[in-house]
Write a structure and sequence with these properties.
five-stranded antiparallel β-sheet; 38% helix; alpha+beta; 17 helices
Length: 487
Amino acid sequence: MRNPFKRNRKERTPGQKANDNILGLTYAVVLVFVLLFGYSAHFLLFQREQVINNSYNARLDQFAQKVVRGRIFAADGTVLAETALQEDGTETRVYPFGEVYAHAVGYSVRGKTGLESLANFYLLSSHVSPLERLAADLSGTKTQGDDVYTTLDPGLQQAAYDALGDRRGAIVALEPSTGKVLAMVSRPGFDPNTLNEDWERIVTEESGQARLLNRASQGMYPPGSVFKMVMLLEYMREYPDDYEAFQFDCSGVYQVSDGGETYSIQCYHQTAHGQQNLQEAFANSCNGAFASLGLMLDPAGIRQTAQELLFNQELPLSMAYEKSRFALEEGADVWEVLQTSIGQGRTQASPMHIAMITAAAANGGVLMEPYLIQKTESAAGETVREFSPREYGALMTAEEAQALTEMMRAVVESGTGSALQNDRYTAAGKTGSAEYETGKETHAWFTGFAPAEDPQIVVTVIVEEGGSGGRTAGPAARAVMDAWFSE
């Protein structure tokens, strides 16, 4: 006989079932609203300005119909771009320094680049008083857009521009503790004041000048011996207890036989470095030593370290850039390993990326995201928004950064970076000479920071077909650092 006191959980009335359905629907509706609210909050906090500032957003054109484009300033208040108004209402964008800031500030005709693109939303936003806005609406005139203050240092920018001279290449200077972009120069450049008139000539010239390309962040180059920083880190990781015991006898040409083939790696101008420990091999940029070292390492490990240093990765940059490329795979043949170990082969990097790796080493292993905009102000001088440094994360441990710094100090004190030796400050760095086309001179690299014991500035230089990094890129970096410490 059924127990009358035992509840039968399977028996539910139609009313209970209806209540369950209503409750389920309520939960679903609430969840949808929570998700919508969360997305709206995320959009307003993180994506709003990016979406609004998109070049395909037609709404910005409507902003320009009511707002006079704001000014762009250097960090010290020097005007880098402003809008001149003619009596007939014609607006002309004026760049007082012409080519010096061409790629950093960019242009706003035939599209937008540089800061003109990056800060477009701010420059076309107007935070004038309500009375001024009302008066402008009633009179049919425009209000003044907000001003943008950058991180760029005028003295440093001019020094970098002068240091490159008429040579093709780029220079990037960063503050490693904050990520501020202190200078960014790419040559050859263009005059943004006359770009509209010069456009057809620039885009059709057959000399391969690529004047509109920002070589600092978009130029792709074989890194040459500056890539030995990556190889050094991987070697220390695979041999943590005895990496300092490394020895190599350099004859100027390192030969390896494999499968009936003999491969040769030459040091620059076949210089015979003799017996080298790891620090000496790094300081003298001994290709033979690092080629032999590369054969001792796991290709998968090299690839992992390269990717942790942001090769093949999206970079934390708001400006236009190209991703650096690293192609070494597990099972790669001997020749590819040899080439990759000295920064050749299929490896490609931008000066900005190399500067970021260097900045991480200078900052105890932690990379601060590079940024160009410090703050925006209304036309009345009131701060609208301020931008603070943002930490990306650790690219290496503090111990690895310290070890790498000591190796880079040796480059300047006793190796290929002797052009940076001086009595005013200490420097640490790495030179590079990268082959890119048979029969042509190598690209010259230098990347480093100063003071070595308390880094304030990182400078990375690429000079196309510049030959030796120590003789060409090193002195250019020295000129920029001298300008920084003279200020």
